[in-house]
Write a structure and sequence with these properties.
Blueprint lengths: L1 H17 L2 E7 L3 E3 L2 E3 L2 E8 L2 E6 L2 E6 L1 E4 L8 E7 L2 E8 L5 E4 L1 H4 L3
Antiparallel strand pairs: 1-4, 2-3, 4-5, 5-6, 7-10, 8-9, 9-10
């Protein structure tokens, strides 16, 4: 009985891990995510529930996001910014080929 429970728990954990969506994103200018400035370049982004992890090499940034659904699909992935203190803070990422967008601004500001 205990083995079945452990196997069921392990299978459920694997499903949660594999549920993360993976996307590629290109930042064309220095961009701030959750207080960390990212240099322009290509990044790997994983989205799971209300968390996003953006990585490039050894650099890794995690942030809480609010996932919203738009009425139609986005043709390409795009990044929207909020300019604060002379820096571009990522406010929203629209995921190309989907109707989902990740909202950063309201989560970062504690709203």
């Amino acid at each position: 009985m205990t083995k079945k429970f452990i196997l069921s728990f392990a299978a459920a954990a694997l499903m949660v891990v594999s549920a993360a969506e993976k996307h590629n994103i290109t930042l064309f200018q220095p961009s701030v995510v959750n207080g960390t400035e990212l240099a322009p370049g290509d990044y790997r982004m994983e989205v799971a529930n209300d968390k996003v992890v953006i990585t490039k090499g050894k650099q890794k940034v995690e942030a809480n996001v609010k996932v919203e659904t738009a009425d139609s699909k986005f043709g390409s992935t795009s990044v929207r910014y909020n300019s604060a203190d002379g820096k571009y803070q990522v406010q929203e990422i629209r995921l190309g080929g989907t109707n989902r967008k990740l909202i950063f601004g309201s989560v970062q500001n504690g709203l």
